[in-house]
Design a protein that fits this description.
With 187 residues, the chain is mainly alpha-helical. It has two domains: 89 residues, RNA polymerase sigma factor, region 2, helix turn helix motif (Rna Polymerase Sigma Factor, Chain: A), CATH 1.10.1740.10; 81 residues, Arc Repressor Mutant, subunit A (Orthogonal Bundle). Helix 2 packs across helix 3 and helix 7 packs across helix 10. The longest helix has 24 residues. The radius of gyration is 18 Å and the shape is elongated. 27% of the residues are buried.
């Protein structure tokens, strides 16, 4: 069976069974996804590549701690998230960037009034997102821009699913308030 025919969990099991060359399949599956995610936190390409490499090294070293009866994606995203936050804390640069995001997702999922949606710019969304607390930024990024489910976000951030829902709802509300204020000048 080719590595492309295996699920992530089967691939991990195969790597753990002394078939370490199959780890390249995991890297191929997740390199662009994790790079895309890390770009929200790390703006310098060299730093991003270093953090991404650290993610894959840490994941490989800890594969035996992964429960193959769970989904692999949230597990590796959690490693990426932790590495990004650690990198930012170490370099005292905690900021998020929406430059690489697909903005059609906003129309579909944020469910703002259509007159607000159609006039939003990347700068306005960047400013609005950066104006809310990081705990809301993180869940909004994972849900709206990384297309992760509540369950996956719960696993990635180690939060109860109800908390994820609450954070998304409040984050969306704060984001909308900021964008309304921006558009209409409301206080």
């Amino acid at each position: 069976m080719a590595k492309t025919d295996l699920t992530d969990e089967q691939l991990v099991a195969a790597v753990r069974s002394n078939n370490s060359e199959l780890y390249s399949g995991i890297i191929q599956r997740y390199q662009s996804k994790l790079s895309h995610y890390l770009k929200k936190f790390i703006h310098d390409n060299d730093e991003l590549e270093d953090v991404l490499q650290n993610v894959f090294i840490k994941a490989y070293k800890n594969l035996n701690s992964f429960n193959i009866h769970k989904r692999f994606s949230p597990w590796i995203y959690r490693i990426a998230h932790n590495e990004a936050i650690n990198h930012l804390k170490k370099n005292s640069k905690y900021s998020l960037s929406l430059d690489e995001w697909e903005y059609d997702v906003i129309d579909e999922k944020l469910d703002f009034d259509k007159d607000i949606d159609q006039e939003l710019t990347r700068d306005q969304i960047n400013q609005a997102l950066s104006s809310i607390k990081p705990k809301y930024q993180e869940v909004l990024i994972l849900y709206f821009f990384e297309q992760k489910s509540y369950d996956e976000i719960s696993e990635i951030l180690h939060l109860p699913i109800n908390t994820v829902g609450t954070l998304i709802a409040r984050g969306k509300q704060y984001l909308k308030q900021h964008l309304d204020k921006e558009k209409y000048g409301h206080q």
